[in-house]
Amino acid sequence: MKKYLIFLVFIFCMGIPATSCSLFRSKPTVRRYYQIYYKPKPVLGRQVSGTVRIRTFDVDKIYRRHNLLFRTSPYEIFYYNTHFWASRPADMITDIIAAHVKETKLFSDVIIQLDRRPDYVLTGRILALDEIDSDDIWYARVSIIFELKDYKTDRVIVSHSFDRRKEVHNQKQVYVVRTMGEILEEEAEKFFNKIYEQLNID
Fold this sequence. Notes:
It is a single chain. This protein has 202 residues and is of the alpha/beta class. The protein has a single domain (32-198), classed as Rossmann fold (3-Layer(aba) Sandwich), CATH 3.40.50. The chain is 27% helix and 38% strand. It has helices spanning 2-14, 89-104, 173-198, and strands at residues 32-34, 48-54, 58-59, 67-73, 76-85, 107-111, 120-134, 137-150, 156-168. Strands 1, 2, 3, 4, 5, 6, 7, 8 and 9 form a 9-stranded mixed β-sheet that branches. Strand 8 (137-150) and strand 9 (156-168) form a beta hairpin. It starts with a helix and ends with a helix.
């Protein structure tokens, strides 16, 4: 009797599209998208007089894909098939830093496109945006070089580089991304403070 029921179910599902038979339907793959985000702290009474252009950051080739990346050692990388950046890492980081500059009013004027001549150019290079899986501990790693240049001479006025990793206490990708945001915020503030000091802004 049992074999007969199985046979009937098989015949029934063969007569309709495979996607319509719940017995043979697999769960659809869920694709998740992420972006680094933080809310910059306000800065009162300190502003660089002049226009700064935020130029799109450069990025190492392995981070030019939308897939989130993780490592288990310095010698091997893996790309997730279901976890993606919502936009290219170079565009995402550039937009975050541009928003930080605008919201804190670091400069008196900010432009993205070169539609008028700026006084300064702010740019950088992204060296690492990694999830590091080390035994039972996960880390978020961010490494970036920031630069502020004089537009006329292309001379570097202020630079700030870092390569930091921070433990992620909840082993999910959304918490890795959140921790990356914490690192980026802290290091961006260090860079901006260097700008204030170099340009003698009290």
